[in-house]
Every structure is written in C-alpha cells, then in structure tokens.
Amino acid sequence: MLYLSAILIERKDIETFDDFLGAVREKAASGERFIRFDLKPPFPDTPSNWEDRVESAFSGYIKK
User: Fold this and answer.
1) What residues have CB less than 8 Å from 45, skipping those under 6 apart?
2) pLDDT value at position 64?
3) Which residue segment(s) compose the domain that 19 sits in?
4) pLDDT tens-digit profile of 14-43?
5) Whether residue 62 has pLDDT greater than 70
C-alpha cells in the first residue's frame, strides 16, 4: 500500500504538485497496487481537485 506521506518522507526533492504526481507515477509503475490518501500534498500549487489528479496519475501507471 502506498501512502502519500511516504512519498513526501522518501522524496525530499519534490517541490511542486506536478513533481509529486511524477513520484506517484513512479511508485505505481514499480508495482504498488493500492494508494492511501493520508494527507493533502502541502504544495502551494496543489489544486482543489488534487485527489482526482493523484488517483488518475496512480491508476494510469499500475502494472496489470
């Protein structure tokens, strides 16, 4: 299970929401199958529909 907070702890280099989506895609491509929204990404450019965008980024890269 992939927690959003784990990405932020692991990847200190992430500075924007788009960078964060890239990290989500990488995790999904590496074999993660489930995602948990345990926090809102703390970036100034995080959009109001952030959950939908994170889910789309994650589900678009899951290996089947």
Assistant:
1) 16, 17, 18
2) 41
3) 2-59
4) 999 999 999 999 999 998 889 999 999 999
5) no
Under the banding of pLDDT at 50, 70 and 90, the label for residue 61 is: low
Q: Which amino acid is at 36?
A: R
Q: Compute CA distances 32 → 5, 7, 27, 28, 36, whole Å.
A: 15, 12, 6, 5, 11
Alpha helices in the chain (DSSP H): 4-10, 17-29, 50-59
- Residue 23 in any domain: the answer is yes
Q: Alpha-carbon distance 37 to 54, whole Å? A: 9
Torsion angles phi and psi, residue 36, rounded to 5: -125, 125
The count of structural domains within the chain is 1
Do residues 27 and 7 lie in contact, with contact meaning Cβ atoms separated by under 8 Å?
Answer: yes
